[in-house]
């Protein structure tokens, strides 16, 4: 049958909020372009949303609107279900039902995939249907496609990404204006960059969901969110951002997945990056991911990581992919996590104590002779060498000053022991501020 006369692919949409509305509008606006690329028309025929009135306004009465999402996943006329509800409760049940009913699934739900991806992909493989999730990581940036297809010749060495726009906006504002975290968070909420409850973003959980998905695709391992090390930006101070700048670094919340001899590092935390790196200069709510492959070297992917139409761009790219491949033999499709399912590795995810990185350490010390010698002796005893040091002159009448040290690479457990010993010194006040540092060479 010629592509020009093939019947349209019929789509059911679960949730028509920000991304769902964008998806519906972009599909309608660019329908002719999309049809030419996909080889057949793609039509949304049913929308499920609890707010049926708003759904009818967005769709203009052109599709059937229902309040019960189960009607969509069980409708025999629907070929593809787009899940944009979020979370891993009802969304998981709906996705599994859609798969059981032989429907392909497109989702933007990183929490669902980071926690239940292994189960979902197994079910989809058994039914011979596709699960596509480009929109789950970095919004409109086609990073999943790059990892699954574009870089498939490479042994991926590491990935480092700014993959949460809210935290990047907050850190950019803290650096630009010298303000503390609490003040900027309130601004971000007022501007709509941060949710009323921003916990998932500011504590690094959202970034960890995305890093987990990328690590699985990059290294051919199952999704293992529970093994990720997750640290947010709530304890960062404007003081550390300022000192980092003086030393030639920017602080970003990075999602890092790295292959090392002992296993895989999977971690999210604030990180000093040399200001000369392109990714260090990604500001505001933008996202960027650096992928380092053995053949290609470092490649950078940059763009809008959230928002109605950027995310819709990724959702529709998945729709087009599925439409092109819907008639293909399942054995000849790109595997969900890039590696054939029977070729997945059981490489361990390393505990944070075994991760090797460099450190920025800031401590408040007594302004008197011998203090620096005590600190450097402790570091030397832990086999930690110093890369750079900054000691501020004590102000008039002050008896204490800030001492900042950048270390060479060491294991986290050695840094932990050294920091505990430094904090035990009578000449050091309070806690040592510790931020990890990555050169990203």
How many DSSP helices?
15
Q: How many domains make up the 3D coordinates?
A: 3
CATH architecture of the largest domain: 3-Layer(aba) Sandwich
Principal-axis shape? elongated
How confident is the prediction overall: mean pLDDT?
93
What's the CATH topology name of the largest domain? Rossmann fold
Q: What structural class do the secondary elements suggest? A: alpha/beta
What gap, in angstroms, lies between the N and C termini? 52 Å
Indicate the percent of residues in helices.
Answer: 25-40%
Instruction: Give a quick account of the main beta sheet: strands, pairing sense, barrel closure.
Output: 11 strands, mixed
Name of the top-level CATH class of the largest domain: Alpha Beta
Please compute the radius of gyration using only Cα atoms. 24 Å
In total, the number of strands is: 17
Low-confidence stretches: none
Beta-strand residue percentage: 25-35%
CATH superfamily membership of the largest domain, which one? NAD(P)-binding Rossmann-like Domain
């Amino acid at each position: 049958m010629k592509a020009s006369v093939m019947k349209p692919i019929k789509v059911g949409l679960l949730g028509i909020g920000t991304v769902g509305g964008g998806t519906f509008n972009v599909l309608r606006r660019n329908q002719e372009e999309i049809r030419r690329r996909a080889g057949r028309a793609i039509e949304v025929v049913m929308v499920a949303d609890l707010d049926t009135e708003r759904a009818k306004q967005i769709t203009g009465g052109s599709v059937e609107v229902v309040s019960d999402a189960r009607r969509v996943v069980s409708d025999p006329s629907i070929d593809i279900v787009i899940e944009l509800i979020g979370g891993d409760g009802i969304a998981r049940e709906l996705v599994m039902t859609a798969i059981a009913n032989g429907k392909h699934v497109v989702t933007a739900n990183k929490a669902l995939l980071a926690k239940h991806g292994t189960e979902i992909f197994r079910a989809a493989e058994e039914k011979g249907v596709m699960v596509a999730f480009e929109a789950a990581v970095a919004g409109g940036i086609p990073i999943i496609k790059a990892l699954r297809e574009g870089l498939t010749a490479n042994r991926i060495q590491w990935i480092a990404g700014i993959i949460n726009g809210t935290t990047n906006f907050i850190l950019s504002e803290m650096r630009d204006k010298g303000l503390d975290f609490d003040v900027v968070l309130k601004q971000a909420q007022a501007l709509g960059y941060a949710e009323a409850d921003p916990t998932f973003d500011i504590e690094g959980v959202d970034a960890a969901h995305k890093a987990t998905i990328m690590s699985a695709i990059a290294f051919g391992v199952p999704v293992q969110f529970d093994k990720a090390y997750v640290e947010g930006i709530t304890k960062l101070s404007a003081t550390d951002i300022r000192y980092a700048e003086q030393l030639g670094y920017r602080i970003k919340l990075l999602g890092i997945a790295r292959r090392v001899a002992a296993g895989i590092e999977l971690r999210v935390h604030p990180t000093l990056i040399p200001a000369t790196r392109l990714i260090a200069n990604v500001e505001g709510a933008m996202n960027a991911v650096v992928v380092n492959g053995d053949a290609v070297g470092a490649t950078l992917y940059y763009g809008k990581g959230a928002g109605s139409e950027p995310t819709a761009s990724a959702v529709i790219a998945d729709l087009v992919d599925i439409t092109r491949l819907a008639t293909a033999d399942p054995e000849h499709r790109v595997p969900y996590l890039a590696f054939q399912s029977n070729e997945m590795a059981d490489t361990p995810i390393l505990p944070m104590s075994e991760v090797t990185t460099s450190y920025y350490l800031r401590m408040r010390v007594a302004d008197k002779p011998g203090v620096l010698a005590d600190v450097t002796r402790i570091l030397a005893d832990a086999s930690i060498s110093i890369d750079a040091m900054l000691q501020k002159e004590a102000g008039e009448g002050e008896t204490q000053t800030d001492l900042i040290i950048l270390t060479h690479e060491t294991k986290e457990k050695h840094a932990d022991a050294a920091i505990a010993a430094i904090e035990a010194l009578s000449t050091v006040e309070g806690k040592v501020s510790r931020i990890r540092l990555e050169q990203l060479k």
